[in-house]
Amino acid sequence: MTAEGLPMTVPAQDLPDRVRIHEVGARDGLQNEKSAVPTEVKAEFIRRLADAGLTTIEATSFVHPAWVPQLADAEDLFPQVADLPVALPVLVPNQRGLDRALALGARRVAVFASATESFAKANLNRTLDESLAVFEPVVRRAKDEGVQVRGYVSMCFGDPWEGAVPLHQVVRVCRALRDMGCDELSLGDTIGVATPGHVLELLSLLNEEGVPTNVLGVHFHDTYGQALANTYAALEHGVTTVDASAGGLGGCPYAKSATGNLATEDLVWMLHGLGIDTGVDLGRLVATSAWMADQLGRPSPSRTVRALSHKDQ
Amino acid sequence: MTAEGLPMTVPAQDLPDRVRIHEVGARDGLQNEKSAVPTEVKAEFIRRLADAGLTTIEATSFVHPAWVPQLADAEDLFPQVADLPVALPVLVPNQRGLDRALALGARRVAVFASATESFAKANLNRTLDESLAVFEPVVRRAKDEGVQVRGYVSMCFGDPWEGAVPLHQVVRVCRALRDMGCDELSLGDTIGVATPGHVLELLSLLNEEGVPTNVLGVHFHDTYGQALANTYAALEHGVTTVDASAGGLGGCPYAKSATGNLATEDLVWMLHGLGIDTGVDLGRLVATSAWMADQLGRPSPSRTVRALSHKDQ
C-alpha cells in the first residue's frame, strides 16, 4: 500500500527525542483471551518482541491462577524468557504474587491500583484505601529487595459505574503509590474515554502536587479512537513512557477485533514520523503481530499491522 | 459501556472554540461501495446527518456515471435533499459536471486535484499541470455564478507510487487552486501516512507562502491510525475545518471494516471532550451511522459507533 520512505520524518517542536515503549501485549493483551494460548507461543511472542527492539516487555502476572486462567502458566513462562536482554516486568497482586515473582528472579514488578471506589470494589473486592493498604507492604518489600516497582492506576479518566472521575481523587491515589515507593506510575484510561485536554489537565495537576512527569507513563485504550491523540498531547507535556500492546491485543470483550489497548505499531508509526527514537524495527514488529494474529486465529486490530501486512502479501 | 458525563469536558489551551465538520460520508464514504445503495437510502442518510446537527454535508458527485457508478444517481438524489437547511457541496470533475450541478441549483461545488503527478495520471490520466488547467475554467465559471468552491488536494502527505511528497509541490498546487479562486482547500492524506509534525510543517509552509489557515481544511485517513492525532495537531495550528465521514465510511478496498476516512463520531468525541463546539448531537449521529451500517450489512469501523451502539443494545 505504501511506497518506501513513509512516513516522512518531520519532527514537531518541543517533543522528546526518545520514548520508551512499555509493551503490554503479552500480559494485558493476552489476559482476556478465552482460549488458552500455549506457553511456548507466549515465550516466542516475547522473544520476537525483544528481537523487534522493544526494551520493556511486561511478561505475565503472578495473580492467583483462578482469577486469570490465561496467565496461570506464569511460573513456566517466566524462566523461558528471563535471560532476554530486556526489562521484563510482571504484575503482582499481593505478597503471595510477589513471593512467586521474586523466587523466579523477577527484577521489576507492577501493582494494579484503581482510581475509583467502584473499580476497586469490582476488581479487588476492597475499598480504595483497603486496596492501597494491601499494596503498601508489597511495594515496600519489593523496594527492599532492590526491585523496581510500577504502579498502574486504572480508571484515571472515567469509570463505567461512576462516569467522570474527579482529578483530585486520581492525584490522591498517585501520591499514595509514590509515597509507598513506586518508581513509576502508569495512568490508565481503562475505558478509553479520555480526550487530550483531560490528559494535559491531569498531568499538570500531578506536577503541581509533587508528582513529576519523569515518573509518569500513559496507558490509553482506543475504545473511542482517542488513544493516539491523547498520546500526542502527553508527549507535548513531556511524557516519555508510553504503554502499548503489539497488534492492539487486548480487545474489548464485546466486539471481535475491536481494539482495547493502543496498538504499538500505530504508536511507532507516529513516533518515527515525528523523528522520535524508539529503538523499534517497525517491520519486525508488524511481522510479530501478524504472526501472533495467526496464532490467535483472527486479524490484528492494529491499523498499521493491517496496512503493512497486506502490502507484504 | 460508559456512564453519563463522559467524555469529561476539559478544554486545552489555544484551541479553536468551534470546528466546522465537513461531512463526506455520503460522497467519499459511499463512492467505493460495490453494491448500489438505493437513492432513497442516500437521501435518508443525508437527512439524518442534517438532523444530527451536521451543517456541511457533501452530497454526491457529478462525475461521469461510468467512472463512479455508485454516484450515477446524482441527478435523482440532489433534488431530494436540496431543501435541507444545510450546505450541500457536490463534487464536479469538469465543466460538464459543473453544468449538471448548476442546473440543479447547487450552490457549493468541489474540484478534486492531486498533489502528485502519479495520482493525477492514475486518477485523471493527465499531468498535474494539465489537470489544473482543466479545473481553471470550472472554478472561474462557478465563481462567476456566485458558487462557493472547495479544492481537494489529494496525496498531500504521501503517494502510493512516489512515496514521500515534497512539501513545496503541495504548496504549488494549493497556491494554483487559490489563484484560480477556490474559497477553501482540503488537504488530503489519501493513504493515511501523515504524522503530526508533517501536518504542522505543511500548514506553516502554506501560511508562509500566502495561504492562510482560515481557508484550509484537513482530510485525514486512518489507514495507520493517525487521523485523530493529526487532527489534534491541526487544531493546535488553528485549523477549524475538519473533514470526516459518518461511521468511518469509505473503507480501504482490501479489508472489511478497515477504516479509510476519519470517523465523524471519533472526531466529535474528541472535540466535545475538548469543549469545542460542533453543533452535532453525538447520540443522533451514532444512531445514524448504526442505521447506515445496517443498510450496508456490515459493522461500522468507527470505534465510537461500536462502543456506543453496543451500549444501546
From TrEMBL, chains A, B:
Coiled coil: none annotated. Keywords: Lyase, Metal-binding. It holds the Pfam family HMGL-like. Gene3D superfamilies: Aldolase class I. Residues 19-286 form the Pyruvate carboxyltransferase domain. One of its GO terms (molecular function) is metal ion binding. GO terms for biological process: ketone body biosynthetic process; L-leucine catabolic process. It comes from the Bacteria. Belongs to the HMG-CoA lyase family. This is Hydroxymethylglutaryl-CoA lyase.
